Amino acid sequence: MVQTQLEAAREGTITEAMARVADRENRDPEFVREQVADGQAVIPANTHHEALDPMIIGREFATKVNANIGNSETTSNLEEELEKLHTAVHYGADTVMDLGTGSDLDDIRETHIEHSPVPIGTVPLYEAVKQAGSPEDITTDLLLEIIEKQAEQGVDYMTIHAGILAEHLPLTDGRKTGIVSRGGSIMATWMEAHGEQNPLFQVYDELCRIFAAHDVTFSLGDSLRPGSLADACDEAQHAELDTLGELTRRAWAHDVQVMVEGPGHVPMDKVAETVERQQEVCDGAPFYVLGPLVTDIAPGYDHITSAIGAAMAAQAGAAMLCYVTPKEHLGLPDEDDVRDGLVAYRIAAHAGDVGSGRPGARDWDDALSEARYAFDWREQFRLALDPDRAREYHDQTLPEDNYKDARFCSMCGVEFCSMRIDQDARDRADGEMDRLESTTNLEASPAAAVNLPPVGTHDTGDRPSLEDDGREQVTETTGDD
User: Which of 354, 385, 415 is the last residue of a domain?
Assistant: First the structure.
């Protein structure tokens, strides 16, 4: 009989996963156990995911980042999805969600689970639509069958859209952008067509039994999240959140771990308020937010508009941030978009941890600042969040090796470099300013691993190819093909 992380924690047991998490977070294992036992943190760790390096999500720990990948009917194949997975892990994703809606979903999912050192999440409702042919044709039995299959495959957490109820649908009538969650729109269509209550809500206790049998973590979907600033914090969003609070407590009663998903599009003045309301309604269950985007005017740059809100949410207590790529609202992200989204969100997560005073989080900033002041270019590159990009930009104008020891860059040149001028002034024997010394020791920092360089510490040097797996590449087809 499987014992979930929550059940073990409640019984006073520190599991191997908890011990590993404590090491990565630089925290006492007993504190980790207490946080899991109280439902304030989750360790997504399906018993069938053998390649997993356990991690923890909770407001008392370093802020985590999720990357969404996945194919569509028109774009991407298994090889490309595997490459996206490795790119996400390399640039610091703490978890990866496979949101594929195209072909070969089982093969792609199994490949991810077989090779991913980070937790894999899914939205099983997407596969249900794929198999049924339309939202209206989904059946309860099909939902349970797919959810149990994915649990057996090793999925660590699943987004379940059980909080959107029939009585919530009229509350969306005055919105500017209606229901923007894929899962929310699917369930709303089903309820409208059948005149019945949300089937995921109806069989929720059965879902809890399936999750408990494989130690799958709930990620309770925010089906009615706002898709525009105008819809933020409205009655529909709040009504669903109240239901998610009830579902959180019901899952806990089955010893199943829970985190709760959040918006969305939220103006800056309401970001902290949104986090605080979720923490109150859901009894402190970890909050997992998409962005939020703080303005709607920048298609093509929504990794920036959302990273602003994400940093604010992290400082306010959000436990995990779901990255947004530059392609948000425009198209399916490719490998480069995954990189840009991950870097933006690692910045947001780290900035939130610095802002909230997370132990040791600022040590990385201080070490890089000291290297910058010392004109230690190689150390700057080594400490950079994205060393390749930092080196690339420097070398575009000053590529020769001798410039790695220069006391200037191409921005100001040798005559107008303020740091060089400051150093020279401090070096004068008759000056009144003292010389500045580097004092930060990252090896002695109390920071969690995600707040120390380098990011992407998982070894992907021997990352698999499809040929190694013995799998055939699947090519997507469109149109009459």
Answer: 354
Is residue 212 situated within a structural domain? yes
Those residues with Cβ within 8 angstroms of residue 5's Cβ, 6 or more apart along the chain or in another chain: 15, 17, 18, 36, 42, 43, 45, 215, 257
Q: Binding-site residues for [4Fe-4S] cluster, please?
A: 409, 412, 417
Tell me: do 165 and 61 sit in the same domain. yes
* Annotated binding-site positions for substrate: 68, 97, 126, 161, 181-183, 222-225, 261, 288
Tens-of-pLDDT digits for all 481 residues of the chain? 789 999 999 999 999 999 999 999 999 999 999 999 999 999 999 999 999 999 999 999 999 999 999 888 777 678 888 899 999 999 999 999 999 888 889 999 999 999 999 999 999 999 999 999 999 999 999 999 999 999 999 999 999 999 999 999 999 999 999 999 999 999 999 999 999 999 999 999 999 999 999 999 999 999 999 999 999 999 999 999 999 999 999 999 999 999 999 999 999 999 999 999 999 999 999 999 999 999 999 999 999 999 999 999 999 999 999 999 999 999 988 899 999 999 999 999 999 999 999 999 999 999 999 999 999 999 999 999 999 999 999 999 999 988 898 898 988 998 899 999 999 989 887 778 888 988 999 999 999 999 999 987 665 444 444 444 433 333 332 233 2
Task: Kindly state whether residue 450 falls inside one of the protein's structural domains.
Answer: no
**Within this chain, do residues 348 and 392 fall inside the same structural domain, yes or no?**
no
Query: What residue numbers does the annotated binding site cover?
Result: 68, 97, 126, 161, 181-183, 222-225, 261, 265, 288, 329, 409, 412, 417
Known binding-site residues for Zn(2+) equal 265, 329
Residue of 372, 383, 295, 388 whose CA lies nearest to 340:
388
> Do 283 and 393 fall into the same domain?
no
Range of the domain at 296: 3-354
Same domain, 145 and 276: yes
Distance of CA 317 to the CA centre of its chain: 14
**Domain tally for the chain?**
2
Which of 329, 354, 379 is at the close of a domain?
354
* Residue 451 resides in a domain: no
pTM of the model: 0.94
Q: Between the CA of residue 314 and those of 31, 56, 57, 97, 222, what are the distances in Å?
A: 21, 15, 12, 20, 18
Q: How many residues are there in the chain?
A: 481
Structure tokens at 278: 């979720």
